[in-house]
## 1
Amino acid sequence: MANKSDFIGSLAKGLKVIEAFNAEHARLSIADVAEATGFDRATSRRCLLTLHELGYAAYDGKFFTLTPRVLRLGMGALASLPLAQVVQPWLDQLSDRIGQSTSVSILDGTEIVYLARAAQRRVMSIGLMPGSRLPAHCTSMGRVLLAALPEEEARALIDTSDLTPRTVQSVTEPERIMERLAAARTDGYAVIDQEVEVGLRSIAVPLYNAHGHVVAALNTGVAAVQSEASDLAALYLEPLKRVQDGLRRVLR
Amino acid sequence: MANKSDFIGSLAKGLKVIEAFNAEHARLSIADVAEATGFDRATSRRCLLTLHELGYAAYDGKFFTLTPRVLRLGMGALASLPLAQVVQPWLDQLSDRIGQSTSVSILDGTEIVYLARAAQRRVMSIGLMPGSRLPAHCTSMGRVLLAALPEEEARALIDTSDLTPRTVQSVTEPERIMERLAAARTDGYAVIDQEVEVGLRSIAVPLYNAHGHVVAALNTGVAAVQSEASDLAALYLEPLKRVQDGLRRVLR
DNA sequence: ATTTTTCTGTTCGCATGGCGAACAAATCCG
DNA sequence: CGGATTTGTTCGCCATGCGAACAGAAAAAT
């Protein structure tokens, strides 16, 4: 930004207030928002009242919750990503053929964002839908996306990730994660075994565009009771690579 | 809002700029945004540059597109709706049993917003995901949700709806739509036959909470080549009502 | 290739919007 | 019931955000 005077502080504050709401904090008071954002209580209050006035938040006299109207804010981004529309039929077909859930995601900072999904039976307790996020370092799709970056860039992202273990199997040492990325780079795919959630294993491959650049990741996830980690490549790598090859001609 | 001075105009402007992006207008210039929002060009420019600075928009030197980060703005709303989490397993089961896609949505103004979905084979060309919207007046779920409102309230929403026909079968006269709502009220369900999209028929029922209030709608959609509209009730009403009954005890 | 039109970047003066402190009242909690 | 916490409100202040105006760049038309 050329000039500091091109920046609108009030808008920035309001967006930070919206981001203060999440699954764990769905219903917040003025004091809650002031604490979560670090803004003055009166500032937080004006932001919340503005959101309420515009229909983005409901207010019961003390607590605020976001309303479905805020979904309009995000739809512009999903809509502007042609990738999701293009890959959906491929995911549906792949999911039908292999009998497992499949997804496509992209990297956004230290997280992956789901763009498209074809779901079979639920194997994860958290519902994953376009827009959902998971940490990149401990997901198969995240690992192939990080592996596609220059090594220093990947390391910087790992260093700023929240490496808090999510299961007892979570890999949390940066050096070991970098090793897994190197392996993913060499193998052309990544497998995770109950690192992001107990009971879930998944395998992912990168998706390339016609120029050979990695633009997304494709995975399938299976219940741990259903397949050993060591079997995932034998079972699913070939169909995933077939979709990878098919999409390479289509994506730009 | 008690005081006009509790309203933050700059925040309101910025949110309107974000909403200017949609599927048809995914990539906008400063002039485009000024035109779409009615704001001064310099104001539009500052909003866009602020969104870019915060990571919500990408900028190529002339055009802006929203980035996946704006999805964080909407996720707080979905997360704060326990309804989506509660109904998902019921949708998955129902979808498996009847072999068709099923969805749950709520009313937001003149539109329905999808909260949850269990998809089988794609019958619609537009991908519907949580957060997607369709006009209420010409969808089966929209009709049962409008039918649950006091009649004057429903009429006011019909009067402010965009009644542009989407297919040759679209019902667009307010009186005829009100008749369809009355029928839905009497029957306890609604069927639409290719009004929202050629090739799609669907049937929906309202979802009640333990207090008997309508809180959402549940539907299944089928390809027109697969079932006649007159057969939908015979084929699917019973399983839909079974889920309706089951959820009545669970929803609050 | 040139001219015209449209768009963007930038500056700047101005008005007021948004800020936060302070106080009173309401609510919550022990 | 008293103390602690939170919310509503007012208000003075000043920095923020606005929009006009101008120059330059880019795009479109000739």
## 2
Amino acid sequence: MDTTQRTDQQRSADRRRRELLEAADRVVLRDGPGASMNAIAAEAGITKPILYRHFGDKGGLYAALAKRHTDALLGALRAALDAPAERRERVEATLDTYLAAIEAHPQVYRFLMHPTEGASSADQGFDLGKHSAPLLRRMGEELAEVIEERVDLGPGSQQLARVWGHGIVGMMHAAGDWWLGEQPCSRAELVRSLADLLWGRLAAAGDRVGGPGF
Amino acid sequence: MDTTQRTDQQRSADRRRRELLEAADRVVLRDGPGASMNAIAAEAGITKPILYRHFGDKGGLYAALAKRHTDALLGALRAALDAPAERRERVEATLDTYLAAIEAHPQVYRFLMHPTEGASSADQGFDLGKHSAPLLRRMGEELAEVIEERVDLGPGSQQLARVWGHGIVGMMHAAGDWWLGEQPCSRAELVRSLADLLWGRLAAAGDRVGGPGF
DNA sequence: ACTAAAGTGTTACTTGCGGTAACTGGAGTC
DNA sequence: GACTCCAGTTACCGCAAGTAACACTTTAGT
């Protein structure tokens, strides 16, 4: 039971785990989030109980799977957020990064955000609710930190930054979700429109003829 | 098979349907969205097949249930949106209406938005993904209409309004969800913070010491 | 009044999935 | 060679969605 042996075992277990995750990834991306544990096990060339030994339950498998993609996305966003540029440019870069990601891998996106699609009716495979929140929440918190860190908001700045962090992330998310479904305009246009919204164009715009506007 | 008989039957069927929906409502609000069809049927004092005769499948039941609450919420929002007041005031009133609604009936809210909570691990009862989108989408579209109708946005206004509609709804939703979970501040503060965000305070704020800000 | 139809309800079943218990076979260790 | 681990298997349990087939009650038609 010395260290090297233990490390060897752990290493092999980790490798197996990665293989299983990759198999799960393939299945989920092919069959949608309703993929059954049996199907995933089959894709990995093994049977169910092994999956359970590695991940505990379906939620565990999902969580591991989600963590990979979530971390990747958050990394990309952080890079855009930390780039040396003006604020507006960064905001646009961040929005664009997010939208490019969901555009490039809509399957992954739908898996992370809308787990139930692909399940026939009831019975969705993975429970997203418990884990999709984390993605949004983590994005919101990270953005809040960046805002708090870089923008001078006066008194109550911490709370304000958190509200804005979650709010902006939600805006990005909802707009992206809608855009992905309908493709009503180019990505660049969407980015500009959202940035304009954040830049107060709503407040600056005039009323339409016929009374006080929204 | 003349008209009066048919009407009578239909009326009775409609009444029954309402009763069943109310029972389902009670169960869902008590047991969370993981409530089983058996449980709902028991609450209504009948058995499963009747539910299936009325609603087709679990998704149908959910859709009917969601429609009620969705319509109610949309009605309230429309009222706030159409009130005779200045734009900022309306925005705040609408935000406050939404937040007050989710604060007053968090169970309903969670059912509409996070169906999977309450299910043990996998196996959530209702499939929200397919139906929660509708709520957000409807809110987004309605808001887009109001914006397009009342705010003068120059060329490309229709598309811009839709982007903003969905974006603002998403902002409200995400911020509300986070706020409901952590209660980090009063509702009024949250409303103010979000309205400030929409009013361009992010663009107007100065950089913090130490370089260009977000 | 007798029958037929149609709606309301039931019990009992199938299917399919998540999850688990208990067994099997092979690699390394003393 | 006996012992222990560990990957892997088969075979099962429980539970919930959904369905088929049967029973009761009302209403309409002749």
## 3
Amino acid sequence: MRPTVHDIAAAAGVSLATVDRVLNQRPGVRHVTREKVETAIRELGYIRDVAAANLAKGRTYPLVFILPASDNSFMHGLNAEIRQAIVRSPAERTNIRTIEVSAFDPAALVCVLEGLAREKPCGIAMVATDAPEVRATVDRLVRAGFPIVTLVSDLTGSLRHHYAGVDNIAAGRTAARLLGRFLGPRKGEIAVLAGSMLVRDHRERLEGFTAVMAEEFPDLAILPVLEGRDDPEIAHMLVAGALARNAGIVGVYSLGAGNRGLVRALKEKAVDRTLTVIAHELTTHTRAALIDNTIDAILNQDAGHEVRSAIRVLKAKADGLPVIDAQERIRLDIFLKDNLP
Amino acid sequence: MRPTVHDIAAAAGVSLATVDRVLNQRPGVRHVTREKVETAIRELGYIRDVAAANLAKGRTYPLVFILPASDNSFMHGLNAEIRQAIVRSPAERTNIRTIEVSAFDPAALVCVLEGLAREKPCGIAMVATDAPEVRATVDRLVRAGFPIVTLVSDLTGSLRHHYAGVDNIAAGRTAARLLGRFLGPRKGEIAVLAGSMLVRDHRERLEGFTAVMAEEFPDLAILPVLEGRDDPEIAHMLVAGALARNAGIVGVYSLGAGNRGLVRALKEKAVDRTLTVIAHELTTHTRAALIDNTIDAILNQDAGHEVRSAIRVLKAKADGLPVIDAQERIRLDIFLKDNLP
DNA sequence: TCAATTTTGATGTACGTAAATCAAAAAATC
DNA sequence: GATTTTTTGATTTACGTACATCAAAATTGA
């Protein structure tokens, strides 16, 4: 049987109350006594029964998710996954609330974070906007003891405990290699459709993409980035325009959202040519396009995994427990038409 | 606050003892009374606090993993992950034991399963050997109330509750499309290295591979399968021989283990030609080969995820709780040199 | 040495559920 | 109506921990 607090009390030759004081770092224990208890804990290999402790404390985990108010299908999916998590809340002792902040607005994000500091949630998950003032606020909250994980978009260099999202540079590099290899010996131009270069994920994907293209596929030239604002209409216009103007385009990399517009443009303008297309995010639209060969590969991050991982990590941090790193690594999914879920 | 047993007792106008009898399906409750309690449960939205229940019961989850006694790096990795899970056992209330059975030996597997029926574990995870007698035994155990999940290798058509492994037909199809697309317009022959055609996973991968090759890449001809028994030495011999004999080989698909031998053969015999190579399972050897361009892509199943998923599912089934399907789906990882973990 | 202070022990209650016992009530049987 | 059987209630203990209270002991300072 696993040792209990009673066992360590007996082993250390102290009372239950003293063990409790040590375990919960309450005051009023002499240094030598504390050490006795601590060695007993170590020697017996005592592990606190978190379930019993939570029961005794009546503990719940008030968590806050801070999301940008942008309405593309990825964010809708992310929202849906959070709602699923809210449904599971009673069983998981969580108490999840979401807050929307206007997208790409560091000041608004900082304001929300400041407000949260007062209501004392036991964990914060946030889609980070990359700005110095956000970093400073996050660092301050972390130092004040709040567990914070970034979601989907990281805040590199900050003290956030964890990042629940994919490595976007690796994603861009992977897209480049897939595109390059699929095109083989063909030469020509590559159109890149992004949401906005103000978004860190998109910048990073592009950075990885251009790096591999330059290193390994010198016969393929990257055209100036089309910024579609993650909007299907704008994406359609931009891609259709590019295809009409430039007959040398042999491949397309869509690293943001708004792929419905991309697909429409491809079906209208590229019936007569063989384009190789890599897009991000598996949605109903991209899935259909992958199946009918309009798109050749889809890179995806699983929003459900990201949300569940964020919750697991926040709970673990709140309890001071370790996390299983391999379990919490968010993987880049590569979908061809053969391995769709 | 969540309702407790006290609340439903009050709401149903019965005593705590009766609620307990209903909840734990103990006898001695009249039909009408049972219904009163059940409607109270539904109306108050009562959810049993599993943590408190487990505490009261002193519950642990004795689980058994049945693994084939084969010593390739994948099985070693799987074993290592189970040992990790055993380390986490105290925190998860699990009590995990592994049993090795000689590989591809249905009779031995059946024998072990029969033996398990007597010791009453609360869940069984098994790497299945696909045979009618195994299926029959599994079905009998499932009907007797044992939660059973198959691991890595499935037992289709059986009553097993869950399969913690990848879709191997999809894996083969994906490999074929990657190989076909990477080769582009090139024509030639494809060498296929398998472990053994007696193993279901390998048969399925080959099935998916040949299907897509036939449908979509008619210019690539698949050579007779080389069966390397998952042994590096045999694999080396077979691949080296094939490369020496046949100058028309443009691609290799290695769908089993023993890739160390494959890599050695490639480095010896294919320095002068450009082969496209797809292999399964990320190990130190395949990882190094991917980085130095000897291998072009690696398909992988994450043994850690498989083990953790099997445990989660078995625990859930033992408690009669639902599982999150999306969370338990084991994904086929595709690694290029750019997205290695 | 006495008083003041700090440290420790003893004890009880609580969390939500399981499981057992025994008495009381209700229903079914004769 | 009396008897047996079934159903229900009331109550207690337990799981492992948290937390509070009050008394007792040990330590410190004067």
